Amino acid sequence: MHDIRAIRDNPAAFDAAxxxxxxxxxxxxxxxxxxxxxxxxxxAEAALAARNTASRDVGKARAGGxxxxxxxxxxxxxxxxxxxxxxxxxxxxxDDRLNGLLMTLPNLPLDSVPDGPDETANVxxxxxxxxxxxxxxxREHYELGEAMGLMDFELAAKLSGARFVTLKGALIRLHxxxxxxxxxxxVDENGLTEVWTxxxxxxxxxxxxxQLPKFAEDSYQTTNGWWLIPTAEVTLTNIAAGEILxxxxxxxxxxxxxxxxxxxxxxxGKDTRGMLRQHQFExxxxxxxxxxxxxxxxHERMTRCAEGILERLGLPYRTVVLCTGDMxxxxxxxxxxxxxxxxxxxxxxxxxxxxxxDFQARRMxxxxxxxxxxxxDFVHTLNGSGLAVGRTLIAVMENGQxxxxxxxxxxxxxxxxxxxxxxxxxxxLS
Length: 430
Description:
By secondary structure, the chain is an alpha+beta fold. About 40% of the residues lie in helices and about 20% in strands. It contains twelve helices and 18 strands. The chain has helices at about 5-10, 10-20, 25-65, 65-105, 140-150, 155-160, 170-190, 205-210, 235, 295-315, 360-365, 390-400; strands at about 125-130, 150, 165, 195, 200, 220, 225-230, 245, 250-260, 280-290, 315-320, 335-340, 345-355, 365-370, 375-380, 380-390, 405-410, 420-425. Strands 1-11-12-13-16-10-9-4 form an eight-stranded mixed beta sheet. Strand 12 (about 335-340) and strand 13 (about 345-355) form a beta hairpin. Helix 3 (about 25-65) packs antiparallel against helix 4, helix 5 crosses helix 12 and helix 7 packs across helix 12. The chain is elongated and about 105 Å long.
């Protein structure tokens, strides 16, 4: 959601920022609707003033015995009542038009975001770790998991269709260990507060974080109107919806481990093999709610929290800043962290950490008040994966694979795996 006052003050700057995202100028349409809305409001206020004046004078006319003036004023009051109702309804309709248009427009990129049409223009910030040199041809995760008998896509397809998987035995224990390790690290070392949230939410929650109305087809809706969350960003960020927070309490830093659901609309033919792109998956999410002046430093902190998980797992990665053409709808700047997958011989996204400014806060009416000030300001929100659990499982499997088909378990996960150091080729812990 955008500040209409800022658009009025500098429509050219607004259009220029959207142009960086490849969009045509839209401020003339916005301002035309806004002008019509304001004109209806002004006319309604004038009609109300006239009605109030007539209401004040009608008693005088009766007391003075001026029956004609009394009847004229009574008729005027009735007319103005109808006029006010009509103008207020028309103003609301224009207001709905304006909000409907603003809701479909993406956030404005920060000046520091590189321009570009797609992922080819993303800019690498840093790398960590050196991809392992294999003395055999490394396999992809699904080849390893199917050979162990612990990863089954055919069974999942029988139950649910394409883009689902069933895991069992040591692999699902490893998956669970990864999520628990992430949570423990974020809570005990990174200072985040763990929250258990529903995975079914109302329209308002999805609107608040930007999934609705523009991206309804990307999510699943139940027959009674709930939405299955695509990420715990939805629930964690909406903790602040409708609130006026104390500035001294900020930043709020939350984390949650949840099931996530995405329709993967428009992804036909992409990552059809394996677990990279699923309709149902698990993610440990991070959300920060902070002041405008602290948002960018909080973005760097959140990115480092996600990077730290990969470093402790010994997984090589690179961090890139997304260009304007590759950045998500609600973001002002995004850092993608891409983990090395030897089975694909490339880096693949495992976390996106975004600073959203007041974009979501305006949609949710999430505000804070500074000490000594009466007028509250909008908070700034951030979100990031810390990490996508399934993709981290893929990375651990592929980077830890051995020539005999076994998988070495990262040392930090072994306490969660009954002390086991590897999953043998037959799927047993050893």
